[in-house]
Write a structure and sequence with these properties.
globular, Endonuclease, Chain A, four-stranded mixed β-sheet, alpha+beta
Amino acid sequence: MTEYFNQSDYKRRRQTARRSMPPAEAILWSVLKGRKLLGCKFRRQYGVGAFQLDFYCAELLLGIELDGETHYVGDAQERDRRRQKFIESLGIRMLRGAGRG
């Protein structure tokens, strides 16, 4: 199953996303990094297949997504549903929240 995680084909995209985090993600990251939450290690912009999670904790099998404006335009919500279904099929629980602003 490890072939699904952090595939090298998407490394540059993950790095770019880490460098340009929206303010809401930066605030949440300040709470999650350094095992500050429950003593668990969270990673940011973690690759799962062709997708990436804003934050992921392998110990808890937990993905966290903050949905910005792009998640509410066109067919984005349907794409998000398919993406979430795939991620959850790997046993990862998802928490989603609005990350506007």
